[in-house]
Design brief:
- By secondary structure, the chain is mostly helical.
- It has 2 domains: 70 residues, Winged helix-like DNA-binding domain superfamily/Winged helix DNA-binding domain (Arc Repressor Mutant, subunit A), CATH 1.10.10.10; 151 residues, Four Helix Bundle (Hemerythrin (Met), subunit A), CATH 1.20.120.
- Helix content is 69%, strand content 3%.
- It has 11 helices and 2 strands.
- The chain has a two-stranded antiparallel sheet with strand order 1-2.
- A hairpin with a 3-residue loop joins strand 1 and strand 2.
- The two termini are 34 Å apart.
- 32% of the residues are buried.
Amino acid sequence: MNQTLTKPVNRADNDPETDRVLAAVRQIVLDNLLPSDGRLPTERQLAAELGAGRRAVRRALTQLETEGLIWRKQGKGTFAGQPPDPTEALAAEIVAEVDPLSAMEARLCIEPALAELCARRATAEDVARLRQLAERTHEAHEADAAELWDGALHRAIARIAGNRVMLTAFTLIDEVRMGEDWQMKRHRARNEARRELYDAQHKRIIDAIDARDGEAAADAMREHLTALFNNLKASMSEGSV
């Protein structure tokens, strides 16, 4: 897995055809209108199906890859989601033994440190990508979409941090917490006021990264995860999950 993000497509340079293809393919991915293996049609097939040029399709796929919605493997094709990781097998083994609050405790241990490293190593392009992902999270109206973009933002911070060992630990936690039952618990622990709070906290994290202030980035991430932890705990204790 790459530890740094691909250079984002400059939206200002996109022509209408690229924007149209981008919207169409993004919707295909979000609606999971794909085979069981998650493989997308080839560039040639997408161009034919969407009535677009190969260049527009290629630019759209590059943008979706930077958003964390697809990944590509030479000679194999383009797939929805994230590339396979060896931690998936371990996550599958321990998921039944780990409760959501324990996973949040683990996130509180590792993600502030990742945010601090991210602040040290992020480029201007990385920060621009983080802001785009935060904006997508804010604009998402459906719970599943909000969860997708929120996860993409946190994964991007972890990748930019550039520490392979810590990234593996993060990926393990991320895999464990992405179970369907756990996602339902998180959905029920959200409401509009909490979403506004989380959006503001995301902004503070990214602002600190942009300022290259590692300590502030770590503090902002810790504050964000503590709010998530407390809200999840309260929701579970109230019997609403």
